[in-house]
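Sorry to interrupt, but I need a hand with the structure work. It will help me judge whether the discrete encoding reads sensibly. Write everything out right here, beneath this request:
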Amino acid sequence: MTPFIDMMFILVIFFLATSRFQQEERDESIRLAKSRSQMPIAAASDMLVINVDKDGRKIVDGKVRTLDELEELVRTRRAVRKDSDVVIRADERARVGQLQEAHEICVRQGFKAASIAYQNAGAVGN
């Protein structure tokens, strides 16, 4: 029984050490729009997160990207992982057109729909 426990302990340490946590993709300066919907936001381990800040800059992996760079990055992600998901986190102070630019790039590159992240503001009627 002891070898089994040792092996499980090593596996847990291995997965913790090699896991990439999505928290690093979340730019804390982005203020998400609020919604009263009760739909849960899925947390996939290999999703592409596009942050759109209040000035309309598109940020991926902590770097500001031009529209051409963003399109190339989305194209590459789609070619490598066809089952990958895209989440767009737009600041509530950003213009809708800036969010739409990022969404159109994702659709043009073959993603059926990019998810748009929002902050839950509570149930309707509260």
Q: What stands out?
A: The two ends are 53 Å apart (CA to CA). The longest strand covers residues 47-52. Strands lie at 34-35, 47-52, 58-60, 63-65, 85-90, 115-116, 119-120.
